[in-house]
Amino acid sequence: MSFFGKLFGRKEKETLDEGLNKTKEGFLSKISKAIIGKSTVDTEVLDNLEEALVSADVGIDTTIQIIERIEKRVEKDKYIGTSELNRILQEEIEAILVNASDESYKDFELPANKRPYIILVVGVNGVGKTTTIGKLAHNYKKAGYNVLLGAADTFRAAAVDQLTIWSDRVGVPIVKQAMGSDPSAVAFDTVKSAISKGSDIVIIDTAGRLHNKAYLMDELTKIKRVIKKIIPDAPHEVMLVLDGSTGQNALEQAKQFTAATDVNSLTITKLDGTAKGGVVLAIANQFKIPVKFIGVGEKIDDLLVFDKHEFVDSLFKL
């Protein structure tokens, strides 16, 4: 039985397995080296395992938690050998993810009582934000929803052009204005249009800047304020997009954005191009914000719902 929801199956699981290949190969080879020649899990094995986790960008704090959990299990069950370490490590990593967030997503389903459902997408330029929005639009449309895009990143001409290309490719409408327009005005028009069109979901792109955090905060606050004038409980979701291949830099971006605005979901992209996919664990554990989607390839269907069990299963799959 697949642990993915009704929209997922063998194809999506194979995509996930393939997308995590680089991380898995590096991760499992380091674990193998950590236990080679050992018959029991001793201090040296744990030290080597700690090094393997850190090198996979699991992060110092999360690594320490995992090692401490394993130490307790070894202390309790003296008979534990290195042959059991993979299973124990897999269980403890999954436990870390479960404890990081109670949220669990199985498909591209929207809350029944929120229409239109408004997602504000944030993230620095280059993380795959616009591509993620296009893929989200594709998946939500495939799930049967009426989707509307809003091009509120008006400070970068390419951002509007790229989102327009995605709207054409996916076959969903877009609201946009001239470059340099007020982003909050675009957001306002987008939401008004969504109500008149009967849209189910609105995905609004925003400018990706971090060099001036105060300005970023002011801009996002203004966008949210004008949206609330139309729908008081919106935006329903502020999604932060992070580039998983940047490792610790993604953690730093998460720190800055979560300080600047109320992020309540995460999408981590480009996991297929890195051996440091362990950063997903670090981000989920450190910020206690649910990872909702992960990007594991360039194809339009390579944005997957993040399933904690399936992620860990793919990470350890031989």
Provide structural commentary.
This protein has 318 residues and is an alpha/beta fold. It folds into two domains: 91 residues, SRP54, nucleotide-binding domain (Four Helix Bundle (Hemerythrin (Met), subunit A), Up-down Bundle); 191 residues, Rossmann fold. It is built from twelve helices and eight strands. Helix 4 packs across helix 5, helix 6 runs parallel beside helix 7 and helix 10 runs parallel beside helix 11. The longest helix has 18 residues. It is elongated and about 65 Å long. 48% of the residues are buried. The N terminus is likely disordered.
Short description:
The chain is an alpha/beta fold and 318 residues long. The chain has 12 helices and 8 strands.
- Count up the domains: 2
Cα-to-Cα separation, first versus last residue: 19 Å
Quickly give the structural class.
Answer: alpha/beta
- CATH homologous superfamily (4th level) name of the largest domain: P-loop containing nucleotide triphosphate hydrolases
CATH architecture of the largest domain: 3-Layer(aba) Sandwich
Estimate percent helicity: 40-55%
Strand percentage: 5-15%
The secondary-structure element order is: HHHHHEHEHEHEHEHEHEEH
Please state the CA-atom Rg, rounded to the nearest Å. Answer: 21 Å
The number of helical runs is: 12
Low-confidence segments, ≥5 residues, pLDDT <50? 1-8
How would you state the average pLDDT, rounded?
86
* Strand neighbour order, sheet with most strands: 3-2-4-1-5-6-7-8
Shape: elongated
CATH class of the largest domain equals Alpha Beta
Largest sheet: 8 strands, mixed
**What do we call the CATH topology of the largest domain?**
Rossmann fold
Tell me the total number of β-strands.
Answer: 8
